[in-house]
Amino acid sequence: MTFSTGQLAKFADGSALAQLGDTSVLVTAVSKVKPSVSSFLPLTVDYRQKSAAAGRIPTNFLRKELGPTEHEILVSRLIDRSLRPLFPSNYFCETQIICNLLAVDGVYDPEILSINAASAALSLSDIPWNGPVGAVRIGLIGDKLIINPMRRELDSSSLNLVITAAAHNLVVMIETAANNILQQDFLKAIKTGVKECQRIIHVISEMQRKCGKPKRVTELNEVPKELLYCIKSLSEMRLKEIFQDYSHDKLSRDDAVKQVRLNTLEHIKNEVGDKFNTDQASQAFNIISKDIFRNLIIENEIRCDGRALPDLRPISCHVDLYKPLHGSSVFQRGQTQVLCTVSLDSPNSVLHSDPVSLLTSGIKEKNFFLHYEFPPYAVKEVGKIGPAVRREIGHGALAERSLRPVVPDNFPFTIRLTSEVLESNGSSSMASVCGGSLALFDAGVPLSNPVAGVAIGLITSYDNDDTKHMSNYKILTDILGIEDYMGDMDFKIAGSKKGITALQADIKIPGLPLKVIMEAVQAGCVAKAKIIDLMNRTISKPRSERKFSWPVTDILEIPMNKRGILIGPGGINLHRIMVTTGAQITFQEEKGTYNVFAPNQIAMNEAKEQISKLLSSSSSPVLEFGAIYTAKIVELRESGVMVTLYDSMRPTLLHNSQLDQRKINDPRALGFEVGQEIQVKYFGLDPVSGQMRLSRKVLMSSPPSIIINLQKS
Fold it and tell me: Which of 111, 170, 514, 618 meets the CB 3.0–4.6 Å disulfide criterion with 166?
């Protein structure tokens, strides 16, 4: 892996070109000087995989790059989570990171390259950032860990772990997809990845020392200490009372805090008059309420809903909600409620990847995919309903990765799992994993293991941004929405009782020691085992009795000489069967058979009846090999003539090469006409195409010139 700077995109605040093999990525970083009015960092990361980088032309109508694909959005989120924690907490200038894929060789990973190049670009720039960070991908083949595996190696790997770390072995971001690997193997992979990241950090730090710009001095959104003291004195007691009132739910607690905010700000406004700054006062109230909430947990080890640190919220599960659905479930955990539905369709409904994503990720098609929906009413808001936004795409991809390892590869149907969040108070993506596992069992999908997911939170206490030496920290199991917002980590982990299938760690502080990560993994594994026990009380294995709504599939073996009859001219017979019965018939080239998919058993019976009638009504007389038959010409073509031996038989081609001993380019040269009868000899069926092999040439005597040549020889 090599880094360079100073040659491309020199107007950007920082730019870096990273290369691994023949894969190259250019990353630029630009940040405005003036802070925005928002109370958070408006960071935008755009990862674009240009088709030209792979030597391709886009396949859309306009033949150019349009909006970002799902894969580009997921990689952009991956880079964002690797960079955001290291920006100063009070830096609010609008910042944009653009990752431009210049060349891709289909062997080395451009995603890891982009994270490291973004780290280099920010380190070299004058943008305030407490990096650098390094990122690696870890694979596991057998019992051997592979650092930054090639695409083909990743195909046979049971682990796909992306880890970003800062100096001093501090973990910044983790994202994992795993084939139900054991906890000890996973922890070993994390340690190995963090160690490898330090090598990359060292190289970028040296590059920064030699080529980096001095960091700019910007106007930071500092809140006056007098304002903090004033708001704390007015609101502390009331906030403590709210956060220690365990009868509150999400809405009532939010309303109570909102009322304290309004009263406090109104009181200060009346005191200072025109000098009142609404933005600063709101920011100060947020700081005070966050400190009070966190300190109560650290001091008392009791959370705002009355739970102890490792306790789960109440869980309830229901399946088989509506009869027309193939599979359905409702999973409720506290005030988070998710409705999952399963749709089973034909193998033709698989999800295909676009050409560039196929080259970089290696995924050609998926017979299982999950779509996640988060409507605004789930959090009592008014908003637009439309295409999935980045957050929905990211949460859906995480839930899909969690379930994919336990879904059988040879399942005869394409599976679409939808997860609609009806209520949300934290960890809706992990609730989608639990509800999805229940719904798949309800649909009769033979999962190898039930899977559950849980979100682990963290409240820490440290001085001067030194997260390496934490004086005190508390790990929270099954976090609420407010604990996610006020806390320092959203650590989502999913898997079976046996092992881990997916993990995503969103860390909001500048890195965590390995010790904290290990404890979070342990807490998550204990919690998901408890959740699986509760889920098993509702349904613990795939439903065995068939539902009327379930689709069915069957295999048909059609003789070669009758396949044309089944298909019909231009596929008209297959289309007619699909329109009248809903059954889809697909030829399986590798097996030489036809797969019949029907939405239910009644449709399957109707389709088979139509196929039987079609083949029996077109039954042909039995022909004898080597016999001579009178054929009738029904059509003249440039390549030959179409003839029938019997009226009930389909026309077959008698090629020009079999019409005469002489070379014929057009049958009209022999004076043939439609309706004319000729003698042909039958040589059976072609073993590949199933077409009849006929010849007129063998019945004709050799031309005189050939006889003369034979006599001379």
Answer: 170
